[in-house]
Design brief:
- The protein is mainly α.
- 67% of the residues lie in helices and 5% in strands.
- It is built from 6 helices and 4 strands.
- Strands 1-2 form a two-stranded antiparallel ribbon. Strands 3-4 form a two-stranded antiparallel ribbon.
Length: 303
């Protein structure tokens, strides 16, 4: 069978290009450590790797959300603990005021100590975060949780101006966690404290007066309710942080499994690649030698 020189050279060039291309491809794979350089090499594997990459991105976001949320809940817990300390101080003052042996001056001095405690609770309730948003205003984060109207009657000057809406954060697939706590009852507690404050600071006040004593007892009852409610909120915050820690650990475990699966699917088998490299190198070398020797042949070599 006779083969034209041009056809022969074209065929040999194509063979060399194919062999060289495969050699370069395996060298590139060995350099990058990737089993597949193009999705078309293994469509099924590419789909699985893409799914794992999407899941990994989701887990990264969930874990980032959890970290931010845990920090916020911890801060909220600290703020509430500060309020508990203030309420305990106020309760101690009210217990002291209930002592019938106190003089009017004693009680008025106690009332003077009550005012800064009320202010501390008020300021804590209106705490802002680093972005200038009110922490305890529900979803109305641009509005103070509690406002104070000095012109209003005693016992109604504090008003809750936030709402009880929840700011929920995604911490898992289909799982959300509230990021905030609303202090909807704090205004009522402050109104009760201010009512006692105004009663006890009146000149000549007598703690044995039935009306004054009733005010003190009512304030003590309110403080007990407030302390129980705030302790409950702190407990819920602690429970939420425990749940978030468990979720974060679960996400970390699944993420590690996904990374290992992606490694198995996408990592190059260097032993197999080395065998192929030797084979492709030998093929290129053999083709080059054959091409070189045959190219030197002429009709005179066989005459």
């Amino acid at each position: 069978m006779r083969i034209a020189s041009t056809q022969y050279h074209s065929t040999m060039n194509t063979a060399l290009q194919n062999a060289t291309g495969k050699l370069q491809q395996i060298l590139q794979k060995m350099a990058t450590g990737q089993r597949h350089l193009l999705p078309s090499e293994s469509p099924v594997t590419n789909v699985r790797l893409s799914r794992l990459a999407r899941e990994e991105a989701a887990f990264d976001q969930y874990r980032e959300n959890i970290a931010v949320l845990q920090n916020r809940l911890l801060q909220n817990e600290q703020y509430l603990q500060g309020m508990v300390n203030d309420m305990l101080s106020a309760r101690d003052l009210m217990v002291w005021a209930a002592d019938g042996s106190n003089t009017s001056e004693d009680v008025r001095a106690m009332a003077a100590s009550l005012r800064p405690i009320m202010d501390s609770i008020f300021y804590t309730a209106n705490t802002k975060d680093a972005e200038g948003k009110y922490v305890f205003s529900g979803t109305l984060s641009d509005t103070p949780a509690i406002t104070y109207d000095a012109a209003a009657p005693v016992g109604s000057r504090y008003t809750f101006t936030g709402n009880t809406g929840e700011q929920r954060v995604a911490v898992g697939h289909g799982i959300t966690q509230p990021a905030n706590i609303s202090l909807s009852e704090t205004a009522d507690w402050l109104n009760r404290l201010e009512s006692a404050y105004e009663t006890l600071r009146v000149p000549g006040v007598n703690v044995n007066d039935p009306a004054v004593r009733a005010e003190i007892v009512a304030t003590l009852d309110t403080l007990d309710v407030a302390l129980d409610a705030t302790a409950g909120m702190i407990a819920r915050l602690g429970g939420a942080q425990n749940i978030l820690s468990t979720l974060d650990n679960n996400h970390a475990s699944v993420s590690l499994a996904n990374k290992q699966a992606a490694l198995i699917l996408g990592q190059l088998d260097y032993a197999d690649a080395a065998v192929k490299l030797n084979g492709y190198s030998a093929a290129v070398e053999a083709t080059q030698k054959a091409y070189s020797r045959i190219s030197k042949l002429s009709l005179f070599d066989v005459l």
